Automatic annotation (TrEMBL):
Protein name in UniProt: glycine dehydrogenase (aminomethyl-transferring)
SUPFAM superfamilies: PLP-dependent transferases
Residue ranges annotated for the Glycine dehydrogenase C-terminal domain, each copy included: 384-487
Top-rank lineage group of the source organism: Bacteria
Primary role: The glycine cleavage system catalyzes the degradation of glycine. The P protein binds the alpha-amino group of glycine through its pyridoxal phosphate cofactor; CO(2) is released and the remaining methylamine moiety is then transferred to the lipoamide cofactor of the H protein.
PANTHER family: GLYCINE DEHYDROGENASE (DECARBOXYLATING), MITOCHONDRIAL (PTHR11773:SF1), GLYCINE DEHYDROGENASE, DECARBOXYLATING (PTHR11773)
Pfam families linked: Aminotran_5 (PF00266), GcvP2_C (PF21478)
Length: 526
C-alpha cells in the first residue's frame, strides 16, 4: 500500500468497500437510492393546489373518486432522486464504451449546439413549407452528401432508425419485384449466419422467407454455399459489410454479381458504415439498397430506444420506388412531394411504394449529422473511419497476448474474441463481463455474433485516445491473467463495487415485475 505525503495510506487496505457497512447504505459519493414509491409519502404532494371553484364539470361522470396512488416528493427530493439515479448510469462522458456493433462514441458538443438553434430546435412537423425553407434545405444538403459518400443516386430520408431503414430497402425491393411481375415467384431472401437479428425479421415482415448462408473459416460469407442457394425464386440478399465479426467481406463484388445474375437485389446493412465512410462507396460494390445509421456513423446520440435515424440509399434500379415524402427544389424554393400521385407527376419517383412514416425523418438527427460532416469535411470523415479501424486493430494487437481472437488477421472497426483463453479456468464470458464493471467499464457485447462461441465483441471507436485504450487494455489483460491464475471465485462474485450485485437476468426476463406494489421485494436483484 502506498502512502501520501502526510503519512496516510492511499489504498483501501483491509477495510474494503465490500465489507464496510454504513448506516445510510451510502458509500461516500455513491448514494443509495430507492424507488420513488419507496421514499415518497402518499399523504402529501410536492405542490399543494386548492380545490377548483366554479365552472361546469366537463368530465362526464369520470371524476376520480380515489387517491391517485402516487408518492409525493418535495422539489429538492425529486431533483436529488433523479440526479442520484443518473449517477448510476455509465455514459460516454465518463469513459470508453467498448460495446461492439453499436458505436457508442463521443457526440461533439458543437453538433448539440447546432441542433438547439432557434429554427431547428423549435420546429413543428405541421409548420407550413414557407416557414421551414432552411430546414428543407438542410435535409436536401444532407441527402446530397449521403449520396456522394455512398455513390448512390437516391436516398429516402424518412426512416427513423436502422431497422426502419431496412424495412424501407426491402419494401423498395418488393415494389420492384411487383413492377416486374415477379413478386409471387421470388420469395427467398438469403442472409448470413452472422447477420443482425433485424435482417431476417425485416425480410419476414415484408412477406419473404429467409435462408441462412454459412460463414467460411475466415468469418466471411461462404461464396460457394451462397451460389448453391441461388435460383429463379431469389428476391435478394441481406449482407452486413463490414460484417458483424468486424471483418470486410472480400467477395462483396462477387456476391453482388451472383445475386444480380440470378435476378435478385442486394441489400447491404449499413450499420457498420462508420468503418468505411469516405474510403469505400457501397454503390461501387453493387449494392442496391443500404440504410445508414446517422446515430452511429455521424455521431448523433443513440441508445435507450432512440432517438435514431436511418436514411436509406437506393440504386438506379430501386430509385423509382423510393417512399414519399422527399424534398425537391424548384427556382430556389424547397418543397416536399407528399403523395404517390404527386411523385408520379414529378417523374422522380413514379412507382413509389408510398409513405413509410407520418413525418419526414428526425430533424434533430439531421442537424447533428450534417454538422458532423461539415466540421470534419470529406477528409475528416475518411480519417474518422481510418482511426476507428486503427483503434480496433490496436486493441486486437494488445489483447491477443492473453485473449484469443476469433479469427486470424486484421479486423475492421471492432475486434472479436472467443472464450478459448478461459478454458478450464472456471470463468465464463458472463463472469468476465461482470468483472469489467468493477474495473469501471461497461461490458463489451457478449455472446454475439452467434457464430463464435463465448463471443466478446469490442468496438473502441475512433474517438478514444491511445491513453484511454492503454488503460482499457491493461484492465482487460489483468482480468485475463487473474482468470488464468485461478481466481474464478472472485469472478463469480463480480460485480462487487456496483450499486447492486449480479442480477438474476434469466428470472428477470422470464418473470418481469412491471408494476410496483408495497408487498413486493426486489429479490431478483440480490
Amino acid at each position: 500500500m502506498s502512502m501520501n505525503n502526510q503519512g496516510r495510506p492511499t489504498g483501501i487496505g483491509e477495510a474494503t468497500a465490500s465489507n464496510v457497512k454504513t448506516f445510510t447504505g451510502n458509500k461516500a459519493l455513491q448514494i443509495e437510492e430507492g424507488l420513488s414509491f419507496e421514499i415518497g409519502s402518499y399523504a402529501q404532494t410536492g405542490v399543494d393546489l386548492p380545490e377548483p371553484k366554479g365552472g361546469a364539470d366537463r368530465l362526464g361522470g369520470l371524476n376520480r373518486n380515489n387517491d391517485i396512488g402516487l408518492p409525493g416528493l418535495s422539489e429538492p427530493e425529486t431533483m436529488r432522486h433523479f440526479v442520484r439515479l443518473s449517477q448510476k448510469n455509465y455514459a460516454i462522458d465518463m469513459g470508453p464504451f467498448p460495446l461492439g456493433s453499436c458505436t457508442m462514441k463521443h457526440n461533439p458538443r458543437l453538433n448539440e449546439k447546432m441542433a438547439r438553434l432557434p429554427g431547428f430546435g423549435d420546429l413543428h412537423p405541421l409548420a407550413p413549407e414557407s416557414a421551414v425553407q432552411g430546414a428543407l434545405e438542410l435535409i436536401d444538403t444532407l441527402a446530397f452528401w449521403l449520396k456522394e459518400l455512398t455513390g448512390m443516386p437516391a436516398v429516402a430520408m424518412s426512416p427513423k432508425a436502422g431497422a426502419h431503414g431496412e424495412l424501407c430497402g426491402m419494401m423498395a425491393i418488393k415494389a420492384a419485384l411487383e413492377a416486374r411481375g415477379e413478386a409471387g415467384k421470388r420469395k427467398r431472401v438469403l442472409a448470413p449466419e452472422s447477420a443482425h437479428g433485424t435482417n431476417p425479421a425485416t425480410a419476414v415482415q415484408c412477406g419473404f422467407t429467409v435462408e441462412n448462408i454459412p460463414a467460411d473459416k475466415t468469418g466471411r460469407v461462404d461464396l460457394e454455399a451462397l451460389k448453391a442457394k441461388l435460383g429463379d425464386d431469389i428476391a435478394g440478399i441481406m449482407v452486413t459489410n463490414p460484417n458483424t465479426c468486424g471483418l470486410f467481406e472480400r467477395d462483396i463484388r462477387a456476391i453482388a454479381d451472383a445475386v444480380h445474375e440470378a435476378g435478385g437485389y442486394f441489400y447491404c446493412d449499413g450499420a457498420n458504415f462508420n468503418a468505411i465512410a469516405g474510403k469505400v462507396r457501397p454503390g461501387d460494390l453493387g449494392v442496391d439498397a443500404m440504410h445508414i445509421n446517422l446515430h452511429k456513423t455521424f455521431s448523433t446520440p443513440h441508445g435507450g430506444g432512440g432517438p435514431g435515424s436511418g436514411p436509406t440509399v437506393l440504386s438506379e434500379a430501386l430509385a423509382p420506388f423510393a417512399p414519399v415524402p422527399y424534398v425537391i427544389c424548384e427556382d430556389g424554393k424547397y418543397s416536399l412531394v407528399e403523395t404517390r400521385r404527386a411523385a408520379k407527376a414529378e417523374g422522380e419517383s413514379a412507382e413509389s411504394f408510398g409513405r413509410l412514416t407520418a413525418f419526414h425523418g428526425q430533424m434533430g438527427m439531421f442537424v447533428r449529422a450534417l454538422s458532423y460532416m461539415m466540421s470534419h469535411g470529406k477528409d475528416g470523415v475518411r480519417q474518422a473511419s481510418e482511426d476507428a479501424v486503427l483503434n480496433a486493430n490496436y486493441v486486437l494487437a494488445r489483447l491477443k497476448a492473453e485473449m484469443t481472437p476469433a479469427f486470424e488477421g486484421h479486423c475492421m472497426h471492432e475486434a472479436l474474441f472467443d472464450d478459448r483463453f478461459l478454458k478450464d479456468t472456471g470463468v465464463e464470458t458472463i463472469d468476465f463481463a461482470k468483472a469489467m464493471i468493477d474495473e469501471g467499464y461497461h461490458p463489451m457485447t457478449m455472446y454475439f455474433p452467434l457464430v463464435v462461441h463465448g463471443a466478446m465483441l469490442i468496438e473502441p471507436t475512433e474517438s478514444e485516445s491511445k491513453r484511454e485504450l492503454d488503460l482499457f487494455c491493461g484492465a482487460m489483460l489483468s482480468l485475463a491473467k487473474r482468470a488464468k491464475a485461478g481466481e474464478a471465485e472472485s469472478f463469480k462474485a463480480a460485480p462487487v463495487y456496483a450499486p447492486r450485485r449480479r442480477l438474476d437476468e434469466t428470472a428477470a426476463a422470464r418473470h418481469p415485475v412491471l408494476r410496483w406494489t408495497p408487498a413486493q421485494k426486489a429479490e431478483a436483484a440480490e
